[in-house]
Amino acid sequence: MFADRAAALQLAPAGGAKAIAVLRNVRLKWLRHFCHHWYFPPQPKSPLFVALWLEGRVVVEERIYTLQPGKVAEYFRIEAEHGADIYLKTMGRVVGVFATEFGTLNQIVHMVAFEDLADRAVRRAALRANPEWEAYARQVRPMIIAQENRLLMPAPFSPLR
After folding, report:
1. Per-position pLDDT tens, the chain of length 161
2. pTM, whole model, 2 decimals?
3. Domain locations in the chain?
4. Which residue, among 133, 143, 93, 83, has the nearest Cα to 113 in the 3D structure?
5. In CATH, what number does 59-152 get?
6. Strand boundaries in the chain, DSSP class E
């Protein structure tokens, strides 16, 4: 079961439907393996409950980077020159990249929609495996003071489902 996941992550740099299909098979094997939880349901905040609840659902990842004061323009310049094309191509449904204007300043917000958690895992692995992305990341990391990640679930009436 875990060997299949490792194989899928090795396919991740190539991306595509094959890697996603392998990860979905791993997820189904995992669910069958833990089927006894249907008789003994997991508690609402347990990892198994969250994994079952997220099964097959669109998820949006929000990443907030807090930068050193005055570094937003430089960050965007480097991202536009070296990282944006790779990011947009690899991540798929990029909702947007934003800078804060009010509230906490010097923050960059990236929002990306994924088909499900397996899609997110494949795309993030492909991004990390790209040497051009790593070169870009080495340039912007010194500007970043803090990072927050959130997983957002679209409401039933949301256009992004």
Report:
1. 445 555 555 555 555 566 666 666 665 555 555 544 444 454 545 554 455 455 567 889 999 999 999 999 999 999 999 999 999 999 989 999 999 999 999 999 999 999 888 899 999 999 999 999 999 999 999 999 999 999 888 888 878 76
2. 0.66
3. 2-54, 59-152
4. 93
5. 3.30.70.100
6. 59-67, 93-99, 107-114, 144-152
